[in-house]
Design brief:
There is one protein chain. By secondary structure, the protein is mainly alpha-helical. The protein has eleven helices and six strands. Strand 2 (113-114) and strand 3 (121-122) form a beta hairpin. Helix 4 (72-100) packs antiparallel against helix 5, helix 4 packs antiparallel against helix 10 and helix 9 runs antiparallel to helix 10 (274-300).
Length: 313
């Protein structure tokens, strides 16, 4: 367990060591350049075709996963995780998609839209949530079961024997969430120059990442393969830098509504809001912790109330 905790702090330290100098370098861009489109339709079906960034590597990993008959236990947990998380992503778009985003470049999509609160949402958004969650989880499983298998938990049943209940309060996660939300509100109201808005999108991201952490991190941390998690996060970071920073924002595939943001932007990355970078971490963490919690539950072999809350039958 100590080795697992140590791995977590190593991942955090490596991330901080990369983020800090990158942030300093990006902040030196005081007057960022502006893209000048030379056509009214610079990226025909660009959003649609860009989903191959998730579909192709996800498909390759899915093929590897399907060819491993010895991974029945992870496979069941994989599908349960996807069935749980994908509808939550869909719900975000259906309820809040138009409150958080706008989609100005209509020619970048197929034009097939799904009705939602506040207006229709491009169907590409829903394909993104499905393939995005699948790629994140498949890359983690591939690392956990193959590339970095030396650092996984080989026997979940034996490792979970001493767990009285899965849900255990993690005070640090709650404090961190409260501090982050408070800092976002203070920045928006006093430092952003636009105090009339409220950072609803950041609040949503913090809750989506830290509410599961508050209930499950205490139990799940020793089961998470932190080396596999770090690979998964940096893979998603690389894809997001190509997908969102290089293509989506400059060419108007989607934009963020200013009134729901903190007001802190990365000018060198086409004014990327800091929430977008937070999303990349939140998605990786929430997906992995959900997957590990489901594996622990199935390893315990008890009904949900007993496994999660210790309530016997």
């Amino acid at each position: 367990m100590r080795e697992r905790a140590k791995s977590f702090y190593i991942v955090f330290a490596i991330t901080a060591a990369l983020v800090l100098p990158a942030a300093i370098a990006l902040r030196t861009v005081i007057h960022p350049g502006i893209l000048q489109a030379t056509s009214n339709d610079p990226t025909p079906l660009g959003y649609t075709w860009s989903l191959l960034l998730f579909i192709v590597p996800g498909g390759a990993l899915a093929w590897w996963f399907a060819c491993r008959p010895d991974l029945q236990f992870p496979r069941k947990a994989f599908w349960r995780t996807i069935v749980l998380l994908t509808p939550l992503g869909f719900l975000l778009d259906l309820l809040f998609g138009n409150a958080f985003f706008i989609f100005p470049n209509k020619t970048a999509t197929l034009g097939c839209e799904v009705p939602a609160i506040g207006g229709a949402i491009p169907i590409e958004e829903f394909v993104f949530y499905l393939t995005g969650f699948m790629l994140v989880l498949l890359s983690y499983i591939w690392c956990d079961e193959y590339w970095m298998a030396a650092y996984n938990v080989p026997d979940y049943k034996a490792a979970a024997e001493d767990i009285p209940r899965i849900v255990r309060f993690h005070f640090v996660s709650v404090v961190l969430g409260v501090v982050l939300i408070a800092a976002a509100i203070v920045y928006r109201k006093f430092l952003s120059g636009a105090p009339d808005g409220f950072p609803w999108y950041f609040v949503y991201l913090v809750c989506a990442a830290l509410i599961p952490s508050a209930g499950f991190f205490h139990t799940a941390q020793r089961f998470i393969n932190w080396r596999a998690f770090s690979f998964t996060f940096f893979l998603l970071l690389l894809i997001s830098l190509l997908w969102e920073v290089t293509l989506a924002l400059p060419y108007g595939w989607w934009e963020y509504r200013p009134r729901v943001l903190i007001g802190l932007h990365i000018g060198a990355w086409f004014d990327l809001p800091i929430e977008a970078a937070c999303l990349w971490m939140a998605v990786s963490f929430s997906t992995v912790i959900t997957y590990e919690v489901i594996k622990i539950w199935k390893a315990l072999g008890t009904r949900a109330l007993e496994a999660f809350f210790g309530i016997p039958k």
